Amino acid sequence: MAKRDYYEILGVSKTATTSEIKKAYRRLAMKHHPDRNKDDATAEARFKEAKEAYEVLHDQDKRAAYDQFGHDGLRGRAGGGFSSAEGFSDIFGDVFGDIFGAGRGRGGASQVFRGADLGYELKLDLETAVSGKTATIEIPTQVSCKTCAGSGAKEGSKPVACTTCNGVGQVRMQQGFFSIQQTCPVCKGAGTTIADPCTDCHGRGRVQKTKTLSVKVPPGVDSGDRIRLSGEGEAGRNSGPPGDLYVEIRVRPHRIFERDGADLSCEVPVSFVNATLGGEVELPTLNGHVALKIPPGTQSGKVFRLRGKGVTTVRDPRTGDLFARVVVETPVNLSEAQKEMLMRFDELVQEGGSKHSPRAGGWLETVKRFFDRIKQ
Q: Is 44 helix (H, G, I), strand (E, B) or coil?
């Protein structure tokens, strides 16, 4: 009986890529494997047929001979063995290996590990955060050992292949039909072990060191902003790349100002006389002092907006505003004479009725109506 076309068996076109051929074979192998079809006598034949087609088409030389001469072009070539000896768990394990990058095959290169990222909190006062600066920081970190060049092995020796994983860095755990690869517990995925460790790093390939770095802080940073220093994190294992350092900004509380993005706010104490008669107070800003005019009759809590007296941010070059909230200061520690004068002043104000205290008058009228409704 004539053999079926290999492309037809796998259900792929003659222009299919190696990856497409591999996927088609795995799909059929998992579907027809005898371990999954114990009650189907034809499953093993279909499995062998698919495996034979795959063994030819995934090999570039065999595929070229087959494309040119058909099945006759494969006569005399060493076969890969078309029995069902390959377990279902092997196929399943290969699928997981491709998905998670765990399987590299026998004799694969040792696994490398990127170094850990580090974080550093840089505290700044408001003035520095607004204007920017170059800060010097010290970071305790793991760096590659110079004595052994990060290999972990003593000078004159070198790491040897791990006998547990045979240098692959992965071991396969069998659980029934399922085969799962995981990091080798002995070499921790490196694929090698140190027989004669370096005396400086004791075989770790890295040593503890405090690095001094310069950090350029741009103008306008605020709490929560992060500056990334590429490659300034911990050194990688097994000659892997280093991690990064993230410098997080923390702006200290200011004695006068509160910041909200590009805007500043502050409280301005105003005397009872200035609030009543009007006047002028000196108001601080981050760029010097300005004069703030207080209109007569200004109430406590009144907010004045000074445009362009705020700050900029790293995301917006436009300058924000300064919001000054008036706090009328009540006199304290008065002398008897001052108290008498205030009492006389209050009597004069009361004689004027609500025209001197419109808010108080309106409030008293509201309270009166409230109690009248309760009585009803």
A: helix
Q: 36: domain CATH number?
A: 1.10.287.110
CA distances, 120 to each of 3, 38, 143, 236, 246 (Å): 68, 60, 17, 19, 6
Best CA proximity match to 63, nearest among 12, 119, 133: 12
Long-range contacts of 317-323 (CB under 8 A, 24+ apart): 318/262, 319/262, 320/261, 320/262, 320/263, 320/264, 321/262, 321/263, 321/264, 322/263, 322/264, 322/265, 322/266, 322/283, 322/285, 323/263, 323/264, 323/265, 323/266
272 and 189, same domain (yes or no): no
Under a CB-based contact definition with an 8 Å cutoff, are residues 349 and 357 in contact? yes
Residue 95 lies in a domain: no
For the whole model, what pTM was predicted?
A: 0.56
Whole domain around residue 29: which residue ranges? 6-86
Residues 150 and 200 grouped into a single domain: yes
Q: Which residue has the tokens 């696994």?
A: 111
Inside any domain, residue 93: no
Residues 106-145 pLDDT 10s: 344 456 678 889 999 999 999 999 999 999 999 988 888 8
- Judgement on whether residues 189 and 210 belong to the same structural domain of the protein: yes
Task: Compute CA 254 distance to the chain's CA centroid, rounded to the nearest angstrom.
Answer: 29
Instruction: Name the β-bridge partners of 137.
Output: 213
Closest CA to 324 of 284, 274, 278: 284
Q: Are residues 140 and 190 in the same domain?
A: yes
Q: Does residue 279 contact residue 257 with C-beta atoms inside 8 Å?
A: no
pLDDT in tens, 314-366: 988 899 999 999 999 988 899 999 999 989 988 888 887 666 666 665 555 66
Q: Tokens 């050194």 — which residue? A: 235
Which CATH number belongs to the domain containing residue 298 in this structure?
Answer: 2.60.260.20
Percent of the chain with pLDDT over 90: 34
Domain boundary residue among 204, 233, 251? 251
